[in-house]
Design goal:
By secondary structure, this protein is of the alpha+beta class. The protein has one domain: Cytochrome p450 (Orthogonal Bundle). Helix content is 50%, strand content 12%. It has helices at 14-34, 60-70, 72-82, 101-109, 140-158, 163-184, 190-206, 213-223, 235-248, 250-263, 267-297, 302-317, 321-326, 329-341, 377-380, 397-400, 429-443; strands spanning 50-52, 86-91, 93-98, 113-114, 118-119, 122-124, 224-226, 347-352, 356-360, 363-367, 372-376, 447-450, 473-477. The strands form 4 sheets. A 5-stranded mixed beta sheet has the order 2-3-11-8-4, with helices on both faces. A 3-stranded mixed beta sheet has the order 1-10-9, with helices on one face. A 3-stranded antiparallel beta sheet has the order 5-6-7. A hairpin with a 2-residue loop joins strand 9 (356-360) and strand 10 (363-367). The radius of gyration is 22 Å and the shape is globular. 40% of the residues are buried.
Amino acid sequence: MPVTLVKSFEEPSDDTVEKEDRDKKTMGKTLSKWMFKNANSVADMSEDRVQQVPGSLGLTLFNVMGLVKSGHLFYRNRRDRNKSNVYKVSIYQPRIVLCSFDGIRQMYENTAVRKEPSFGMFVFNQEILGNHTPLIFENDEIHHQRRHIFIELSKKIFCNKNFINELSQSISSELDHVIDTMTSQPSSDFEDALSGAVGNVVTRCIVGKTIDNELLKKWMDNCLIKKFKKARAEGPLVYEKIRQSVKEGPIFREFAAGLVKKNGLLEEDICNEIIFALIFNAYKALHGFVVSALVHLSNLSEDKQIKLQNDASNFHQSTDKTTELNSATDVENYTLEIFRLFPPASFVFRRVTENFVLPLKSGNYQVNKDDLLCGNVYLSQRDPDIFDNPDKLDPDRFQRQPHLKDYLTCFGAPFLQDSVPNIHKCGGQKLALTFAKVFVMHLLTLRIEYDGQPSWSGKKIKRIIGSDKPVRVKAIRK
């Protein structure tokens, strides 16, 4: 396989390691002081210390044109122009953009902000999900109660001692099918083939059976709509077919019955939440990760590739794959680095419910009732004040500085914090990372010749995949 190698990352000297250890201790103390403090407490705040949010709204039309042209660079350029990680701009409606870790933490924890039933300007069409509002758009007790679904589901799946072995076999089988498809039909859509593989793996593990990928894709096409558009008439019919498939799954039947009895949740709510999670995790988050992780393996230096290959070799040869997966630190660090560079959701949105002062490391800012907050996860995970060479793929980053894991805002809470119902941490984080790491183990067995080397400029804001253009292959084999 033709492999494009970049200049090897320099190994740190003893002096550098000693300095990084000191830096780690210092940053760790700083982290404990401001990361876990009560998000609503603003100590010793006098009127003259409160700042107005910098920036100008500008004209929506020109801003949208700039966003379409420059993608993520539009937000970065605005940040640099304002010399601030918080600024205001108008894109369809006025918003306050937060590009820093502490800003997004405020969005997760401050009780003066609320989720809305939308992804920014995109509104989730509840009719496509039986008029059910998904967990990620809920607040307060409803949110806390339904988080039990994914916490308990994760526990249920990991109770199966053969889960990792079965997951590995499922991924291997699906990738074999992708290889057969691309070999027999070279003009096939490679990303679409991988999407089908990811969907089959996830539904088989979570529901206990595969669900027609065409149904899932149709549902995806109908579930997110602009306010001025109507969902296609087939949407509710597609949803009903998916719902029946989920309910027929053996894992779901056993899991749902226990959760209804234990937590008093309705089976329909459980089914709806599972469907929503399956669609977005299979066809958005995990699929985006798998393609990104695959194409960027060829951008690693040879020594970094060898380290990952060693982890993969040990995993595939072991009969105790669970233990081997847990000890594969190089694969885990690579996985987290891909999630850092290409988060599954680049933005989070909240609506301010009352006037308050936003306490950030850079200062205290006045925000007002009805303001729309836009948390830029993509930029917060590339913050040069936290991450050295933030745009560089560095799979050893978290090995040198493990505490940086807690600065990944895509998981909703500190990486090492347990997932419990009353926080905003991703309830399926452990499960999602397990899927991701086992996929990497198998991606490392592939030999691919690309039809044009994939590259990422940051200009494609609608793609969560780390390649500007759809990935195409000339040849693929194990």
